[in-house]
Amino acid sequence: MSFKPANWPRKLRSQAWYGGNSRDTIYHRGWLKNQGYPHDLFDGRPVIGIMNTWSELTPCNGHLNELAEKVKAGIWEAGGFPVEVPVFSASENTFRPTAMMYRNLAAMAVEEAMRGQPIDGAVLMVGCDKTTPSLLMGAASTDIPSIVVTGGPMLNGWFRGERVGSGTHLWKFSEAVKAGEMTQDDFLEAEQAMSRSSGTCNTMGTASTMASMAEALGMALSGNAAIPAVDSRRRVMAQMTGRRIVQMVKDDLKPSDIMTKQAFENAIRTNGAIGGSTNAVVHLLAIAGRVGIDLTLDDWDRCGRDMATIVNLMPSGKYLMEEFFYAGGLPVVLRHLGEAGKLYKDALTVSGSTIWDEVKEARNWNEDVILPVEKALTQQGGIAVLKGNLAPKGAVIKPSAATPSLMKHRGRAVVFEDIDDYKARIGDDSLDIDETCVMVLKNCGPKGYPGMAEVGNMGLPPKVLRKGITDMVRISDARMSGTAYGTVILHTSPEAATGGPLAVVQTGDMIEIDVEARKLHLEVADAELEARMAAWKPSHEQPQSGYAKLFQDTVQGADTGADFDFLKGCRGAAVGKDSH
Predict the structure, then answer these.
(1) Which residues, at least 6 apart from 433, have a Cβ–Cβ distance to it below 8 Å?
(2) Tens digit of pLDDT for each residue in 62-88?
(3) Helix axis angle, 261-274 relative to 279-291, nearest 10°?
(4) 3-state DSSP call for residue 348?
(5) Tell me: the pLDDT tens digits for 352-392?
(6) Using CA atoms, how far apart are residues 218 and 220, in angstroms rounded to an integer?
(7) With a threshold of 0.85, does the pTM exceed it?
(8) Which of these, 570, 489, 436, lies nearest to 140 by C-alpha position?
(9) Is the CB of residue 303 less than 8 Å from the CB of residue 269?
């Protein structure tokens, strides 16, 4: 840790709007005073923007307006001036075609909300899957002092004595209905048990994963990731976060000081230890790009290859986030990594201390939830990056959620040209498919869907499910929910819509998968593969206007984070010209 706090007091960027007695500053100050603010609040103290992704159409974040009041209290207590700013909220369970299409838009929106307004520091109020990465991306681009506070996971679901994980059991029960093992009425009854409190998914899905990534990166206070949404300690965390951001502004402690290459490697190893979502791959790559850090899929494979998955949570294990918090939460995992020599202990955090200073005294209160290494869910967790002639730029798989016997497999491809083709044919018992086949889904990547939807964990054919089979190898250029499970190969790059090799796979082709060897191979002769690719023509829709066209024209591949090509490494929070 080499950070040296800035001198205080000093003139902050908000004084370009509010300092002095010119016509322009009186204009800015006077309008804000119509809300009843006393004149002495404009004396040069830190103005803190509470960037709030609360929305009634973002259920995961539906309680953030309540938490914002606690953040405000902390800011007032520390001598700051809080201003709550609503920002774009990309809801995972509402937006179509997929929230991922709007992650970059949300990041742009929050970046400009921070850059163009009198904000000296920001509290990033997040929760739902895409809200955490989008606000971190925006904060990374502006490089204004920023800190994350998440809304926290919902309480455990329970149905007929069974612990129910949000998302995970949706997939499980849906397959059970198709297999004739569960009635539709029972499925509807179970729906009422899945989401019984405010908060994000209670599994180690993408929301909890990204909350953990924010903490592992050092961008949230220690212990933030796992506190349940309705626990009083979540409100305490919000208030303490409000207090801390004021001192961060005084010290000029910025995202670029915290999110270093070492911090990202800490996060990647943490993702392996917790059995985190594959979505963390595209999000951390995108955030790193905004900071100007050279992070690649090779870093993901290198840092994750020898990571044991020790957090026994769905979808990889059996418990939920509530138990993870009671067991000690992420600080226990980080302490384990430090003791195992797999943590950069000197990495700086928003607290001003090193990550090791924050976690070295953490205690594990339940070794069935946070497992000893010798009892790990898998000794080779993390995210495995596969390459070969089917994925020259890489594809990813989550070993902790896969079937061990399928990690080395050779099977006949059954191809679906897009998600509509899959939906139209998967339920047909005449479909020539069995459990040894490899299901291949095309045109669901960043450009193809568009937005790279979470459809990679394709449901199995009913006739296979009725045989008692619960997993098959599935390959696509799509993503899958962090709550999902199975031997699912995702993010295949280049994607089919840009003419990657995936685009020319044909039903009947043989595909070889070897996760240990990091191999994904299409058994087609090089000359034949070249001829197919030369004859290929795009078939996905090409939007002609609006954000959809901007997205289509500028989004990059999943292997680099699916950010826009003109936004990587663009950092700096310069104050724009005043038009008044």
Answers:
(1) 414, 439, 461, 463, 464
(2) 999 999 999 999 999 999 999 999 999
(3) 170
(4) strand
(5) 999 999 999 999 999 999 999 999 999 988 899 999 999 99
(6) 6
(7) yes
(8) 570
(9) yes
